[in-house]
Amino acid sequence: MATTDSAVLQANAWCGTVSATGGFAKADAWALLGAIEPPAMLAGHSAPGVDRKDWRHEEVGWGVVLPDRAGLSFADLAAGVDAPEPIRRLLAQRPGSPVLRYRKDLQGGRVLRYDPVRGGVPLSARGNRGIGKDAVPRYLLIVGSPEQIPWRFQYRLQVDSFVGRLDLDDDALSRYVDALIAGWKGLARDVERPLIWSVDHGYPDITFLMRAAIADKMHQGFIKYQFKSTLLTGGQDELKALYEALHEQQPAFVLTTSHGATFPLNDTAQLKQNLGLLVDRNHALLDPSALLGQWSPNGAIWYAHACCSAGADSPSMFTQMADGESSLGRMLDAVAQAGPCTAPLPRALLGAPSPIGAFIGHVEPTFDWTLLEPEHGQRTTNSLILEPLFNALHSEKRTPVGMALDGYYDAVAGLLLDHIDAIKDVKDRSDVERARRAKLLAMDRLAMVLLGDPTVCLPD
């Protein structure tokens, strides 16, 4: 079994001529500072026997999160009159769904819920759940860019709730909402034919590990349960093969593993245009326009395990972690200059004429340590991928994508506790390494996000 070097870290980022690799910064500040209180995982009250898959149930609920606004009455803020017109249509289609507000001074994942008399009431997802008075729905759709509502707010919210985000212009948002309301009915998408595309540049490149730990495992799981899964790898990991298979098979579920583009490092505007685009075996970049010229997503769900596939943030959670002279350190600095933003691929897919249902990806890079722990070489695929994306998402009674991802975040609280304990116990280098490992794994997991509505399911 391949193992990682505990002194070297690989990210699935392609910097134009090399992948992002590097040692850690000599100072231990990143590992030892910034302890975060672990969240209570999906806390809050709900009646016995209530199925959390049923987002329409009043004690489960769905709602919208918008930026707080000045100059509006309490009643208008509660009604969401300032929401984009497509979101107002969606709220009308889901009567009783509350409009919640993000405000940067609120801590601990709290949101404002406006009352026409009392004004904005700060609420925590650790309290009452649902659509009733002073409650927070379990399913939450953030509407806005990461500049308006930060990624870190989404990270915090998604460990207590089932959270998605839409960051689209008005026309693209209207197309997505129309498809969501219609449920993509009558559109071709085959749940029996999942498609997996996995670029593999060979050991010791991180793509070798991603293929073995993610793509192969998912394919084997699908085959075991008689799905007609297609795995494109080992010479089939060119973009042409991906485009053709998407067109021919029209899968309801797509999984890709590859480097994500993070170049040029010295041109922020161009880097932002390339950000997170999938990189094939020849280092060619996926072209969203070419892709959509051959394929209509039709409500499919896509998981892209690639650096910055969902977007970038500034400041980076990993700032000062890596050796600044390494390709990893330089990549982290360059990507931070491009953020905060949503990556171009999910924006194109979610705003397409027949849009994708949901896109799952990473803000910033994801690392080899998340797939293969450096201490003992144990793969962590089950909790990372198989449980949320196979067992939950493909369950016989379909699980909404936001709820399916809950299993992925379960480990965050334990990792943050490990980080706190390691900081308290620091006596020698091994304790520093323990703190670094726990923090890195927790931050990596938190930075996987859902773009799209969290109530989207695979078709029956």
Description:
- By secondary structure, the chain is α/β, with parallel strands linked by helices.
- The chain is 34% helix and 17% strand.
- It is built from 15 helices and 18 strands.
- It has helices at residues 29-32, 74-79, 85-93, 151-158, 170-182, 206-224, 239-249, 268-274, 288-294, 327-338, 344-350, 381-392, 401-404, 406-424, 429-446, and strands at 8-14, 19-23, 62-67, 99-102, 111-115, 119-123, 139-143, 162-166, 195-198, 230-232, 253-257, 259-261, 278-279, 301-305, 311-312, 341-342, 358-362, 448-452.
- The protein has a six-stranded mixed beta sheet. Strands 10-9-11-14-17-18 form a six-stranded mixed beta sheet, with helices on both faces. It has a four-stranded mixed beta sheet with strand order 2-1-12-13.
- The protein is globular and about 60 Å long.
Structure, briefly:
It comes from Agrilutibacter solisilvae. The protein has helices spanning 29-32, 74-79, 85-93, 151-158, 170-182, 206-224, 239-249, 268-274, 288-294, 327-338, 344-350, 381-392, 401-404, 406-424, 429-446, and strands at 8-14, 19-23, 62-67, 99-102, 111-115, 119-123, 139-143, 162-166, 195-198, 230-232, 253-257, 259-261, 278-279, 301-305, 311-312, 341-342, 358-362, 448-452.
